[in-house]
Design goal:
Elements: H1 4-18, H2 26-33, H3 37-44, H4 47-70, H5 76-93, H6 95-102, H7 125-131, H8 137-146, H9 153-168, H10 175-187
Length: 197
């Protein structure tokens, strides 16, 4: 059974799928999660605190997903291609993740802001972490690279950057085959030419 905090985050995310963030009401989020409004405010402090927690959860879930794909029992080129395909697929269905990765925030999404300086610190450890604000795209890419073995860090960076470029300008052939072609050339010591890209 999910905790009250997880139930509230799930309810807020469900509301965000139907409504722009400006129309999401705290009272409705609490009712949908079947907890009191007081519990919601105890956990998050405010609607902005709830937004920060949603963004932190998306970033954390993304990094767990990357780690899982990198741990799969396959050769590293196949794992990296799998990471790229997963990033694109997840970002296409999760607008918050897409915004975190690209830095492109639509009017339907909560604006990522850290807690105001001098604001009362939350008594909830998870909220204190969320209140620091979500990672910027470059920070999220760096955290992604930290998931890979040091020997593969540069190749992982290439993979992630190809996946991110695919989010901005999709290739109908898909990002996985592109990553495999580039890695085949890179790992065999060849430099990809313009015609190979």
């Amino acid at each position: 059974m999910p905790t009250a905090r997880e139930a509230l985050l799930d309810a807020a995310l469900a509301a965000l799928r139907r409504l722009p963030w400006s129309a999401v009401r705290m009272v409705d989020v609490a009712a949908d999660a079947r907890v009191s409004r007081q519990t919601l405010y105890n956990e998050f402090g405010s609607k902005e605190g709830l937004a920060r927690a949603l963004l932190r959860r998306e970033a954390d879930a993304y990094l767990v997903g990357v780690q899982q794909r990198l741990a799969e029992p396959a050769g590293m080129p196949d794992r990296l291609a799998g990471v790229a395909e997963w990033i694109v697929a997840e970002a296409c269905t999760r607008p918050l993740l897409r915004a975190l990765l690209t830095g492109c925030w639509g009017e339907r999404l909560p604006v990522p802001r850290p807690a105001r300086a001098g604001a009362l610190r939350s008594g909830v450890p998870a909220q204190r972490r969320a209140d620091a604000g979500p990672p910027a795209p470059a920070e999220l890419v760096a955290a992604t690279l930290a998931c890979a073995d040091d020997r593969w860090a540069r190749t992982c960076e290439l993979t992630v950057r190809l996946a991110l470029s695919h989010l901005v300008a999709p290739d109908p052939q898909g990002v996985g085959p592109l990553v495999r072609r580039v890695l085949d050339g890179t790992l065999s010591g060849q430099n990809p030419t313009a015609g190979d890209r």
